[in-house]
Amino acid sequence: MPTTTSPAPVRRAAAPARPGAVTDLTDHALLHRALRTGTRVVADALTGIAFDEPCCPVRQRELVRWTTRVLAEVRAHAALRRGLEAALSRVVLPGGAPELRRAGGDAALDSALARARQALPLFARDVSAGAPALALTLAELADLVAARLDTEEEGVLPLVDEHVPTAERDRIVRNVRRSLPAGQALFTLPWLLDACHPAERVTVLRTASRPARTVLRFAGARHARTRDAVLGSTW
Length: 235
Known about the structure:
Blueprint: H1 28-50, H2 57-91, H3 98-103, H4 107-125, H5 127-163, H6 166-178, H7 184-194, H8 198-207, H9 210-230
Helix pairs in contact: 1-2, 1-5, 2-4, 2-5, 2-6, 2-9, 4-5, 7-9
Protein name: Hemerythrin HHE cation binding domain-containing protein
Organism: Geodermatophilus aquaeductus
C-alpha cells in the first residue's frame, strides 16, 4: 500500500548489545537489550512502510500488536526506573545526587509515548495515512530510549546494585509488572528470549522458572510469527 514515491531510506541497525552475557530472563541487561532492539525494530519497519515498503493486512495487524506491547514495556521501564531512583534516594541519597538528576526529566519520553499511542490507531485503520507520523514518532522514541538506558547503565544502576537491597528491588519490579496489561507476559518472555545471543539461550532457559518455561512453550511460535510479520518476512 504505497504512501509516497520517495526513495527508500537506508535502515539503521539496532544498537549493539553491551558486553557481558546474561544468565536469566530477569537480568536488567537483557531487558535493556530488548528495549533497544524492540523500539528500533518498529521504528525501522514503519519507516520502510512510509517509503512504500509493502504492508499487507497481516503485517499491519501484527505491527499494531507488537508496537502496543513494546510501548507498554517502555512505560513500565520508566516506572521501574523512577521506583528504583526513589528507593535509592531513601536509602542513601536523601538530598539527591548528580547521577539521579541526570536521569530525571521524563517529559520528552512521556510526550513521545503519548504521540505514539495517538498515532497507532490511525495506522491500524489506514496504513497510508498512519505510517509517516507513526514512523517519525517511533524513531524519536527509539533514540530517547537508547539515551535513557545509557544514562541508567552509566550512573543509576551501579548505585542501585550497591545500595538498594535485593528484596526492595524485587518488590518494585513485582509492582511494576502487575501494572502491565493482561497477557503481557505472552509477549514479554519470548521477546526477552529473542534478545539473547545463541550462547546465552541454553543458560537462560535452564534458569527460567517453570511458569516462564510454560509461557515460552505456549507463546513462542506465536511470537515468532508476529516477529516475522513485523520484519516483513511473510510477504
